[in-house]
Specification:
Layout (H helix, E strand, L loop, with lengths): L1 H16 L19 H16 L8 H38 L6 E4 L4 E8 L4 E7 L4 E6 L3 E6 L1 H7 L1
Antiparallel strand pairs: 1-2, 1-5, 2-3, 3-4
Helix pairs in contact: 1-2
Amino acid sequence: MIGKLRPLCLLGLIWLAAPTSGTAAPPMGGVVAGGNAALWAPTTLWAQAAAEQPAQEEQPLGSLILQYFPLIILPILFMLMVSRPQQQAAKEQEERLGRLKKNSRVVTRGGIYGTVYSVDREQNRVTLKVDEATNTKIEVTLNSIETVLEEPAATDAKS
């Protein structure tokens, strides 16, 4: 029943968006005085279509499955398109942090560039040397490391 009324619903939306230049609602009989019957035509069509509809019949099981198919498919698509890439990115970040060694060049989530001075995995801490001239070191959590710029082997190869 609802599927047959969809085009009429669209007409109803067009009717709602139409300008009403001070037109009063039609009387209960649906007859409009003053020649503005075009404004009320969608509602009368909708009422006529609803009156002509036969009583709702029992739907077979296949039809119900097809109706609920989008509701079943949406969570699966959400998992594939949103959750899975996030899980993969988290796994890659964990692998990068697992390879973190002394003398690796890194960037923290706060935007601080530094060189790893020491890694303490039990306490989840990393000591970064941020200035070579003054030997300034800071301690950050392991998870605050955003990007590993250079591995220590790449630094040794350049020297």
